[in-house]
Amino acid sequence: MAVDCFSKITKNDLVKLVDNAADLIRTSVDYKYILVLLFIKRLSDRWKEEIEDAMSEIMEETGIDESEAAKRAVSNEFHSFMVPENVLWNNIRKDRDKLTENMSRAINEIAKQNKELDGVVNRIDFIDFTKTRENRILLEQLFALFDKYNFSNKCIEGDAMGDAYEHILMRFAPEKAKEGEVYTPREVVRLMVDILDPQPGMSVYDPACGSGGMLIEAYEHVKSRMGVDKANRVGLYGEERSPTTYALAKMNTILHDISESHLEVGDSLLYPKFKTASGLRHFDFVLANPPWSQKGYGEDTLKQAEFKDRYAYGFVPQRYGDWAWIEHMLYTSKSKVAVIMDQGALFRSNSEKIIRQKIVDEKLLDSVTLLPEKIFYNTGAAGAILIFNKEKQEEYRDKVLFIDASREYGKHPDMRKLNIITNDNIDRIVSAYKKFESIDGFSKVVSVDEIKEKDYNLNVTTFVIPINNESSIDITGTIEELNGINTDLTEVEEKLNGYLKELGYID
């Protein structure tokens, strides 16, 4: 049974908790089971908290006794989501021998009672998960672990619940990247959102939303500056082709207490979901990190798509879907688009060049930022952020800003082989974008005519020339690295000598 809270549960508390859960499952079990358990526990604890709050409100307003107030308090008007009494967390785990069956029944009952959660909580099969004895024991251990805390609002500090959920996504990102799942580092997302700078009353759309990180960051951007009420006035819209990843995104937004999120399962390039009576819906800002160099969206396929007039600039080759995503995003945007692309999309020829040329000539391209290498979990390649703007200021209408942020990074605190974009890096890039100015070795304002002269090659290094082409040498860092190598060699030599002595080869 979950204990009552005597002090607020912090982000660090919950991160440690989910890390312990991750250590339990290691890599033998899909991490999504942790996320569903976290979500169900949260729903259950919130339900009980809402019952208590509703009873207090009802008794104060009507003067009726506690038992009558308890009957009224289960009405859906007092609850974010309906959780039947028989599937509350304590009732799920009451009979240890039926834990799997009770959990399976609970997620199906909750999905039945809440249309918004159908296809979300019941996306994971716990019956299949616990076919082995080892996994049945593991499920018991996870239940016991999550019993440590009460996940009600009164016990959780700030955004700790949503932060813990995001932490699990990030922790397993390197492993899941090998299976094709893409998690965009939150620092890159923050950079894109800071450039767009969404405001209350605006709509933000991600046509390849994954686990919802970009939409959540747009919400957090406004919340950190203006508060929750203003943040809840930002309309968030996302589409995701994978039903399982959609489920993760839905739970993610709910655990961040976001009320204005509209997520759909669908293939944005073929059958977009957000429509109006007159056609496709348009949004103030569109942002995404779609799959790079995605295959399968050639001319024959896209000619069968709904609203194929989206691809008026041309059709992409079968092997590279990058500019099809850009065309869709431009079509659905009222103002700005921010998209991460593989560098190849900046210079490849043939049909991609034709599309690129038309968009540049229409003066829609606002900026191109080259990112550092080794910041993504699924590739060491340096991507690029392209910003398009349908409302460019007249003085910049003929101009494109190129930013070389390839050296704007620090070492990742947890993963030795990865880099990270720091807050200072983000501030410098955003400042350069907003000032729209040339800075030696870092950024350059280029005319559309200059881009034409370069045959519509958008490679940042074509326009931004480093101040010093010779690689600078970090003397102190190099010495420290050499000292570390020498220490390692000494330790190896000592071990080797020890083995040789044991074998009698040396005295």
Automatic annotation (TrEMBL):
InterPro entries per UniProt: D12N6_MeTrfase_N, DNA_Adenine_Mtase, DNA_methylase_A-5, DNA_methylase_N6_adenine_CS, SAM-dependent_MTases_sf, T1MK-like_N_sf
Gene Ontology biological process terms in this record: DNA restriction-modification system; methylation
Keywords assigned: Coiled coil, Methyltransferase, Restriction system, S-adenosyl-L-methionine, Transferase
Signal sequence segment: none
Database matches in Pfam families: HsdM_N (PF12161), N6_Mtase (PF02384)
Stored PANTHER family: SLR6095 PROTEIN, TYPE I RESTRICTION ENZYME MJAVIII METHYLASE SUBUNIT
Name the record gives this protein: site-specific DNA-methyltransferase (adenine-specific)
Taxonomic lineage from the root: Archaea, Methanobacteriati, Thermoplasmatota, Thermoplasmata, Thermoplasmatales
